[in-house]
Structure formats: C-alpha cells, structure tokens
Amino acid sequence: MKSLTHARVLTAHGWRDDLAVLIEGERIAALLPHDHAAVRAAQVHDLDGALLLPGFIDVQVNGGGGALFNAAPTVATIRTIGAAHRRFGTTGFLPTLISDSVDTMRAALAAVEQAFDEGVPGLLGVHLEGPWLAPGRKGVHDPKWFHLPGEDELALLCAPHRGVRLVTLAPERVSHDIIARLAAAGVLVNAGHTAADYAATRASLDAGVRGFTHLFNAMTPFGSREPGVVGAALDDPGSWCGLIVDGHHVHPASLRAAIAAKPRGKMLLVTDAMPPVGAAEPSYVLNGETITVEDGICRTADGVLAGSALDMASAVRNTVQLLGLPLDEAVRMASTYPAEFLGLAESHGRVAVGCRADLVAMDADCRVRQSWIGGVAA
To answer: 328 an active-site residue?
Structure first.
C-alpha cells in the first residue's frame, strides 16, 4: 500500500487539496484526508504541492523516442513509443499505423497482441489509420496503399483481440454494412482522410461511425451550403472528435468554435505524434522521404504536414494558453474523455476509487514530475 500526499488532486468532482490518494496494487483504493491512519500507515510519497491528475490517454500516436510504428511494427517499437510519451504524462496509448501493406497491418496487430502478453506499460490497443481512405484527402499517407476492403482484411480486423481496436476510414469508400460489421465485432470506427459530404457522413454515423480523426485536417470543410464532414461532426451530439492543439494543424479560433459546438466531453486531445517526440533527432523517414521538424512542425519537402512533434503535456498546456480553457477541462480532454471514447471510463481517465492508478504529477506549467501506470512509478 502506498499513499500520494500533499498534492492538488483533480477528482471527478473537481480540485481537492485535502485528500491523499491511497494505492493498492494497480488500483486506487481510497481518497482520504492526509491525517487518516491508513494514509500514515502506507508508504508515503509526498508530492510537495504538485498537481495530481489522471494519466493522459493518446489514441493517435504514430511514433516517439526515434521509433515509428510503420517502420518497425514490433513489440520493441511499441515499448519505445510508450516510454517516450510517458515522459510527457501519457499513461495509456494506441500505437497508430498509417496506411501500409496488408502484411504490415498483420504484423502490427500481431505485435500488439504480443505486447499485451509481455505487459508493455500503458498499451491500450491499436489504431489503424487507413488504408481505406480517400486519395483526395490523403495528407501524408501514401495513396499506393489505398484500396477497398477485402474479405481477408475484414476477417483480420474483426477477429477476437485484446484491448481497443480503432480504425480510421473514409466512409464514402466503404459500405454501411462494413461499418456495421466492424462495430459489431467491437472495432471502433472513426471517419478521417475523407472527401465525404454531409449526407454521406451523417449516414455513416447512423451505420456505426463513433468519431472523427484529427477534426478539420484531411476532411471536407464546413461551408454555408455544404456542411461537409466537419459540419456533420459538429452537428452530431453523440460522436467524439480528436483535436491536434499544436498551433499549426488548426487555427485556435476554429478549435474554440468546434469545442463550443459539441456537448461537453466529446472533444479529446491527440498528438498524432511522430518519432521526434522524446528523441534528440529532429527528422525521420516516412514513405522513403525525410521529414524535417522546424519550430515544432513536421513537414515534407513539399510543405505537407506529416504528423506532429506534439506531446500530450504540451497539448494540455496549449489548450489552456491558446484556447483559454480551464486547466481541469484541458486535463479531462487528455484523460477522462479519451477513456470514455475508448469505452474504458469505468477503469481509466479518473482519479477515483476502483480506477487504475494511472496518474501523472505535474507542476503549474504542465511540466511532468512523475507518472504511475498501474500504481508503478517511473
């Protein structure tokens, strides 16, 4: 038994300065006053006034620590990515594979299963971003991999699996039956890299689409007479939207308007991070092309955005500083709301009794001091 004391704790009911967090094994056992006998009897870890928050959950992370999931879809890569992002408060993540060959997809899914066997810290599942995407909204994806889904691929994705399985697709490129089949197999379906109009997007939501990958980017924009994918996303109260808050991908005014349009709890922060996060090397290779990072922006030689160099602690800080949201709401967008999107609200994303002890201690400037995954500190 251990206790985390003298922190400003973000509980499900707001900030509390008078509570210690008691951890037993992988779970939060109790929230108790600092002078409670059980707190004093435990192994005490004094946090000296730090902010104690639910650990961040990143549902779109392509790389980190110099590693790219596409380049080496292995357990070692997953472990490296998780360790790199943990330094910035991420205690749960979906390694994300962008459009690639079916063999690479198969290897990535097998690596995730093996990583669960090996207990890689923070692993929650996998995100396949493509290859059922729209050539006209390809972003940095290599369109040579784009195709319509075949039966073998569907069987692969719908097979029994551990953890969360998230797929981003262009809804105009697949039938509603395929979306429904994926959803029935427990696969979460997002719309992204799509040229769909409002009506097609609305119909895909009815068929089982759950959310939108990096809202605004690589999708039809909101217009006065054709609301597009963005309009459908903002008009739908039940879906979730991922936001890249780095000051580059989307203008802060657009982000503020989008957040105001959706019900509270439906916007979640994502990094779309690439290998430079947590690494000394500011460049990497994607699809055979060297991507450079300047002023925190990852671009191809032609100026196309290629993921980000964003970490989750910076995303939280930006949400406060660029968007003007309160810190507690920014933290929920990085923890509580992603957990709800993934169907993990009962066990993740909250500092509450019975939840996993996935926690992060930060200072007031959103610099991470320490993290815990399943009660284990790093």
So the answer is: no
